Automatic annotation (TrEMBL):
InterPro entries from the UniProt entry: LexA/Signal_pep-like_sf (IPR036286), Peptidase_S26 (IPR019533), Peptidase_S26B (IPR001733)
Gene Ontology annotations for the cellular component aspect, listed alphabetically: membrane
GO biological process: one example: signal peptide processing
Name of the protein: Signal peptidase I
Lineage: Archaea, Methanobacteriati, Methanobacteriota, Stenosarchaea group, Halobacteria
Peptidase S26 domain boundaries: 13-75
UniProt entry tagged with the keyword Transmembrane helix: yes
Keyword entries, A-Z: Membrane, Transmembrane, Transmembrane helix
NCBIfam families in the record: sigpep_I_arch
Major localization class: membrane
A single MF term (Gene Ontology): serine-type endopeptidase activity
Compartments, as annotated in UniProt: Membrane
Keyword Glycosyltransferase found: no
Membrane-spanning residues: 167-187, 208-227, 337-359
Amino acid sequence: MDLKRALSVTLQLTLAVVVIALVAGQLLGQPILLSFVETGSMEPTLEPGDGFVAVPAELSGEIQQGDVIVFHAEEIQGGGLTTHRVVEVTEQGYITRGDANPFTDQDGDEPVVRDAQVVATALQFGGSVVVIPHLGTAVMGLQAGLETVQRQLAAALGTRALLGPQGIAYVLFALSVLAYAADYLLFGSAGKKRLRERTRNTGTSARTLLLVLALVLVITATAAMIVPAGTEQFTIVSAEFESENPTVIERGTASELPYLVPNAGLVPVHVYLEPASEGVAVEPEYTYVGSRVETTATLTLSAPEETGAYRRFVTERRYLAVLPAPVIDTLYRIHPWLPLVVINAVLAGGIYGVGRLLLGTGRIRDRNRKPRGRRYRRILRSLYE
């Protein structure tokens, strides 16, 4: 492969990864590499539709004043992911404000932001956020189109399984597998020849197609591990009296609360439960949940001596049981994200290897006579329209 062709393939794959990461991040409710803002609360730093590099909270280090964070808000615009700047760090948590807002979020109804609510930090150099103009605008349009296709397929097939964040991954994965399988079964070795002929005409190799298929599988697996997990909040009341309500606790004492851990999927999962704030204990902290069953853990919520309402957080992490439990546990002890990365690598490598055996890799020959510069300008123009 010559240098120009290598750069062309790299650009195509990079563009695909960027778009898929943004769409997947929106569907999963968890920024993946990149994110964007939809409102003007962060102007002039981030205009509506601008994108930015989202560094996961567990990798970004200690949050400081001036950092722009992505967090799960409770009250802002009805709750959900919000991107605002930290204007003060207190013992209770972070005081936040949109750059365009005259008052802090906590001057309104939003409680102080706790570490358990922060999911990412915007990448900054020299105190300035790295901005990707208009990237979010294009992705929101693409996301709307994907959701329309999901709804139409779900209505036609009479199933809700194709809706939601996992649904889009299922649809893409199923279509890709069916296309490759049909081509191979119908034409056998001739299918490989047909595939190579198509890739010569389109300028895309079978290797690239297999990489895209592996990427779709990774998104599916990531959705299965991230969507049902996350951080859950419990609001307790430290009271002067005993109560039958497990979240109304006599001050200075503790109450036990059942925590349901279901698995609606076909693949068993390893589940870790972590106290994410003071006043929380969980037993057991690890459990194995089989296919389409559920188990129950016990939370112990402690009330401080001072009366009032308090928030308690528990973080749940899930990993598909495609690796032995001791391997998962060893990786988890090193870093909670490491099992997810290794699992995705194993799945992607497996689908790529099987696809290569069945379909071959083809040869990359670019027969497209259109100047590459014109094609790239068209791609960039579509992002800004």
